[in-house]
Amino acid sequence: MTKILTIGLHPRELDYSLHPGLDEATLTARIEQGHRALLAAGFDAELCLVDADPDAAEKTVRERLSRASFDLAGIGAGLRVAPEHTILFERLINVLVGASPGIRFFFNSSPETTIDAIRRQLHGPS
User: Fold this and answer.
1) What is the pLDDT of residue 99?
2) Ramachandran region of residue 21, left (φ > 0), alpha (ψ -120 to 50) or beta?
3) 4 strand-pairing partners
4) Which of 43, 92, 112, 113 is 20 to 30 A away from residue 32, measured at CA?
């Protein structure tokens, strides 16, 4: 079975003034619901929430990678698309590739689109 790591920016790290109508509790619930949906769909997935600080985030991901091997990794849109997180995104990609040669990536647009993103990598576009 494919082992999946989903990485996202911890909800406490987000600047909610840039996201009207969203707050930490709502985002936390959406992330948790998305992860439960992965497990319910039968995926062997682990959730890894990271700090915005690249050093702290890299340490968190390295610790997770030291406990298990992953075949597929996703980095959430909240971390990936914000210009202020470009260095963090770059570092995490390099950590994943360095620690897990051959790892494949998927990218979602929200917690609710994670399953579709994983399926694209496992089965190709629908």
Assistant:
1) 95
2) left
3) 45, 72
4) 92
pLDDT of residue 125: 65
What is the value of pTM for the model shown? 0.92
C-alpha count within 13 angstroms, C-beta hemisphere, residue 67:
8
Render the burial of 26-63: b for 16+ CB within 10 Å, e for the rest: ebeeebeebbeebeeeebebbbbbbbbebeebbebbee
Q: Are 23 and 90 within 8 A, CB to CB?
A: no
Q: Is 71 exposed, middle or buried (0-12, 13-18, 19+ CB in 10 A)?
A: middle
How far is the C-alpha of 51 from the C-alpha of 125, rounded, in Å? Answer: 32
Residue 1: its pLDDT value, please?
85
Burial group, residue 114, by CB count within 10 angstroms (0-12, 13-18, 19+) = buried
Give the pLDDT means over successive 10-residue stretches in the chain (126 positions).
Answer: 95 90 94 95 97 97 96 93 94 96 93 92 78
